[in-house]
Amino acid sequence: MDVLVSANRNAGQYYMATRPFSDSSVPPVDFITTGIFQYTNFVGGSNASLITLPAMNNTDAMLNFISRIRNTNVTQNPPINVPGDTDINRRVFITLAVNDLPCKNSKCVVSDGFAASLNNVSFVYPHIDVLQAYYSRNIRGVFAENFPFLPPEFYDFTGNLTGVVSAVEVGTRAICVNYGDAVEIVLQSTQMGAGGSHPIHLHGYSFYWVGAGFGNFNGETDPSTYNLVDPPLMNTIDVPGTGWVAIRFFANNPGVWYMHCHLERHTSWGMSTVLIVRNGSTIETSIRPRPSTMPRCHRT
Predict the structure, then answer these.
(1) What mean pLDDT is predicted for residues 199-208?
(2) Based on the structure, what is the number of domains in the chain?
(3) Phi, psi dihedrals of residue 91, rounded to the nearest 5°
(4) 134 and 25 belong to one structural domain
(5) How far apart are CA 209 and CA 244, in angstroms?
(6) Same domain, 38 and 104
(7) DSSP readout, the chain?
(8) Domain Plastocyanin-like spans what residues (predicted)?
(9) Is 109's pLDDT higher than 50?
(10) Per-residue model confidence (pLDDT) at position 103
């Protein structure tokens, strides 16, 4: 998070303090980091006392803070262009989970038999990258264009998981949309594994964070709480461990774009996918041709 500060208070020294936020059942080290904001050439003591920070797992405080972030109409920002309700023609509902990965021949594919998933699909990195396969339409079998737009099973995602099967399938499955589609993606955390929040990053796009809430997303009532007036424009969004977030954007950047959790362990376990935005009808709305000097590489 980048912060623009207006130095309009009385000259002096002001404390700054940060604390990690975690709503996982596996808490990190709870360090508080402090600093001082000081006016030039000021000599004297501090003009502000230390602030009592919220608890490290205070989800209400976290959501209250980030919900106050608004898209400001300043020259540095692009004009606001939020897809409206009637614009949306592609909706995707994605659950985030840490799952069990069945082992074969007593040897697990990933460490400790764990996998992470989006809609119960744990991403497999292919021997030929998806972008190269997409460029070279004669390369088959690298990825499938059938990422599920809904989870395979609906249950109490943030509640009791009794009887819910945590096994996951593995595959290289892409989310495919047409150029110009107005896309809404709802990201829903689950209590699978250790639970906890997930910072989700999408390459190639900035998107509008239009909604968030606790518990299970309700497609009938929760959209009425969306902020479609001045939502912040971002490329990474934190999905609270006991809730959901909704993002919207126009798919106007053709190509193959990686979407993943920014916790490296979860990414390595497969909490990722690719968004393929198909070519439009013109050269300007299509992916650029492969450069003649572009190296060709693959894993063996």
Answers:
(1) 96
(2) 2
(3) -110, 135
(4) no
(5) 11
(6) no
(7) --------S-SSEEEEEE-----SSS------EEEEEE-TT--S-BSSPPPPPPPTT-HHHHHHHHTT------TTSPPP-PPPTTT--EEEEEEEEEEE---BTTB-SSGGGEEEEETTEEE---SS-HHHHHHSTT--SS-BS---SS-S----TTS--TT---B-EEE-BEEEE-TT-EEEEEEEE--STT---EEEEETT--EEEEEEEESS--TTTGGGG---SSPPEESEEEE-TTEEEEEEEE--S-EEEEEEESSHHHHHHT-EEEEEE---SSSTTSPPPPPTT-------
(8) 168-280
(9) no
(10) 59
Residue with tokens 């990686």: 258
Do residues 162 and 110 both lie within one domain?
A: yes
How far is residue 115's CA from residue 261's CA, in Å, rounded to a whole number? 13
Could you tell me the pTM of the whole model?
A: 0.86
Backbone angles phi, psi at 247, to 5 degrees: -125, 155
Q: Output the pLDDT for position 49.
A: 60
> What is the spatial distance between Cα 290 and Cα 297, in angstroms, rounded to a whole number?
14
259 and 137 in a common domain: yes
C-alpha span between 154 and 149 (Å, rounded): 13
Poorest-confidence range of 18-27, 108-117, 226-235? 108-117
According to DSSP, the residues that pair with 90 across neighbouring strands are 183
Question: How far apart are the C-alpha atoms of 68 and 113, rounded to whole Å?
Answer: 40
What average pLDDT does the chain have?
87
Q: How far apart are CA 75 and CA 151, in angstroms?
A: 40
In a shared domain, residues 152 and 55: no
Q: Looking at the predicted structure, is the pLDDT value of residue 167 above 90?
A: no
Which residues make Cβ contacts (< 8 Å) with residue 65, sequence separation at least 6?
none
Query: Which tokens in the block code for residue 120?
Result: 């119960």
Residues 238 and 130 in one domain: yes
Residue 61 lies in domain: 13-67
